[in-house]
Amino acid sequence: MTKSELIEQIASQLTDLPVKDVELAVKLILEQMTDALAQGGRVEIRGFGSFSLHYREPRTGRNPKTGEQVALVGKYVPHFKPGKELREMVDQAAKTAPTRRPHINPHLRLV
Amino acid sequence: MGSLTKAELAERLHQDLYLPKRDAKLLVETFFAEIRECLRCNEQVKLSGFGNFDLRDKGERPGRNPKTGEEIPISARRVVTFKPGQKLKQKVEKFKGDTQ
């Protein structure tokens, strides 16, 4: 599922909201999460999971093309830890018969 | 700094997009519920700029009870992994932590 398919799925459930609003909302949700992490914060979504930053120590890397050594500074990388509900839901689904829900493919057109 | 939660996400939708609070809350709930539902159906979720949620089927492997040292197998399972997108990685990289 892509971002635009997610927008369609949400809009198909919240039928009294204009698709344009759903689109703006999805973008704003992602922007807020990105900004929180960019400022060193955490995102905690109950039932889904949490996003935080993990620190990567400075290290000496190599340019894969030239083999030349490069000093890499320490940096932060985003990290996601799935919440209990998501973890159990996904694992449970794997253990029972896999059910793929019908998906609307926006690229499919009737001819 | 506190954590960003569903309540705050909804509050911003209310303030910036003038969505009624009830709709804003419903939208945030539906956003995460839809991603979860997709992952439950073993389907990857790709949110360009932010990142991808992928699924991995892991086989059984030997594990240990960290307290007792007792050997217990870790059963086969399906797990969710997150691969941050380029834009998110770049923004986060610029953060110069004040704690570490």
TrEMBL record, chain A:
Record-linked SUPFAM superfamilies: IHF-like DNA-binding proteins
The answer to whether the entry has keyword Phosphoprotein is: no
Is-annotated flag, keyword Hydrolase? no
Q: Under the GO molecular function aspect, what terms does this record hold?
A: DNA binding; structural constituent of chromatin
CDD domains hit by this protein? IHF_B (cd13836)
Q: Which Pfam families match?
A: Bac_DNA_binding
Q: Which GO terms describe its cellular component?
A: chromosome; cytosol
The source's domain of life comes to Bacteria
What are the record keywords, sorted? DNA recombination, DNA-binding, Transcription, Transcription regulation, Translation regulation
GO BP of this protein = DNA recombination; regulation of DNA-templated transcription; regulation of translation
- Family indicated by similarity: Belongs to the bacterial histone-like protein family.
Query: How does it associate, per the subunit comment?
Result: Heterodimer of an alpha and a beta chain.
Q: What does this protein do?
A: This protein is one of the two subunits of integration host factor, a specific DNA-binding protein that functions in genetic recombination as well as in transcriptional and translational control.
Q: What is this protein called?
A: Integration host factor subunit beta
Q: Which organism is it from?
A: Allopseudospirillum japonicum
UniProtKB/TrEMBL annotation, chain B:
In terms of domain of life, where is this protein from?
A: Bacteria
* Protein's name according to its UniProt entry: Integration host factor subunit alpha
Q: What does this protein do?
A: This protein is one of the two subunits of integration host factor, a specific DNA-binding protein that functions in genetic recombination as well as in transcriptional and translational control.
Entry-linked HAMAP family: IHF_alpha
Query: Which organism's genome codes for this protein?
Result: Allopseudospirillum japonicum
Q: Which SMART domains match?
A: BHL (SM00411)
Keyword terms, alphabetized: DNA recombination, DNA-binding, Transcription, Transcription regulation, Translation regulation
The taxonomy runs:
Bacteria, Pseudomonadati, Pseudomonadota, Gammaproteobacteria, Oceanospirillales
Family the UniProt entry places it in: Belongs to the bacterial histone-like protein family.
Among the GO biological process terms of this entry, one is: DNA recombination
Supply the InterPro entries for this chain: Hist_DNA-bd, Histone-like_DNA-bd_CS, IHF-like_DNA-bd_dom_sf, IHF_alpha
**The encoding gene:** ihfA
Q: Does the keyword Ligase apply?
A: no
* PANTHER family hit by this protein: DNA-BINDING PROTEIN HU, INTEGRATION HOST FACTOR SUBUNIT ALPHA
